[in-house]
Amino acid sequence: MAGTPAKKATRTAGGKSAAETAAPARPAGAKRVTGHPPKPESRTALVRRARRINRELAEVYPYAHPELDFENPFQLIVATVLSAQTTDLRVNQTTPALFARYPTPEDLAAADPEQVEEILRPCGFFRAKTRSVIGLSKALVEEHGGEVPGRLEDLVKLPGVGRKTAFVVLGNAFGRPGITVDTHFQRLVRRWRWTEETDPDKIEAAVGALFPKSDWTMLSHHVIWHGRRICHARKPACGACPIAPLCPAFGEGETDPEKAQKLLKYEKGGFPGQRLKPPQAYLDAGGIPAPPLGAA
Question: Among 42, 192, 195, 223, who pairs with 206 as Cys (CB 3.0-4.6 Å)?
């Protein structure tokens, strides 16, 4: 596929690949959506296309990582519960004060709910989230000796913890493979026609079957990062997408390269990312830390 942005070009001094700035006007093989049924794709062809998309995204986002700030499994599970119905950025701006005051499950389990509510107010739904994180902390203390369990079957029994949260914790705190099916992941895998399922558990199973288990955690990061930065819900930046030649939904968004470039988010568009303390690899690639809560 010579000449398309999906080719892996050399990286610039800033650590970015040419794929991050290349903007296809109308890549070969990528057709505008017309409403006609797509041509049938064999199972083998689907697996090959899906794995190639993941490889290409790994080139574009070599520094992909969980975008919640955390230093241990307890901080990660609490932050993930708090991320419901809000952004990771807002959670990252809120949790420093929470963990400074309540650093352990024992501390948070014994906390005054009104004081926790005041800290969590910027996250939205702060009363419900206060009940969740205090209940979660009590369960960790009473049932797991104050430690976050490393098994899926134990995690999903904790208050406020579903499969998505459990896989975030397993993959990023314990190094155990899992697929995180958030709203970005659901949107993109359906656009790419990896699956037609709408139920998160069925999406997880369908997509998991396309990849080796060892790929699952980083696959989740690649897809979610692409959804946040380029393949947006309302107006995807199709003209700036490095995997456009592999995407059957090319044309749903802005295809003009210059206009599409202006739609890019986070470090790809020169804006701060989600984390206040991102990994060094992200900073080396030109990423910018998020501002703390209340900063201009």
Answer: 195
> For the chain, what is the mean pLDDT?
89
**Is 247 assigned a ligand-binding role in the annotation?**
yes
Residues with Cβ within 8 Å of 192's Cβ and at least 6 positions away in sequence, in order, are 49, 50, 53, 246, 247, 248, 249
Helix (H) or strand (E) holding 170: helix 163-173
- Asked whether the predicted pLDDT for residue 131 surpasses 80, the reply is yes
- Please say if 7 is a catalytic residue: no
Tens digits of per-residue pLDDT, 188-236? 999 999 999 999 999 999 999 999 999 999 999 999 999 999 999 999 9
Count other C-beta atoms under 10 Å from residue 94's C-beta.
Answer: 21
Active site residue: 69, 164, 215, 268, which one? Answer: 164
Q: How many domains does the chain have?
A: 2
199 and 164 share one domain = no
Q: Classify residue 270 as left (phi > 0), alpha (psi -120 to 50) or beta.
A: left
Q: Active site residue: 182, 256, 259, 265, which one? A: 182
Residues ≥6 apart with Cβ < 8 Å to 225: 57, 61, 64
Residue 37 has pLDDT above 70, yes or no: no
Q: Does 143 lie in the same domain as 198?
A: no
- Give the CATH number, domain containing residue 96: 1.10.340.30
Report how far apart, in Å, the C-alpha atoms of 19 and of each of 12, 24, 268 are. 11, 10, 11
Of the pLDDT bands very low, low, confident and very high (cuts 50, 70, 90), residue 10 is very low
- d(C-alpha 58, C-alpha 3), whole Å: 19
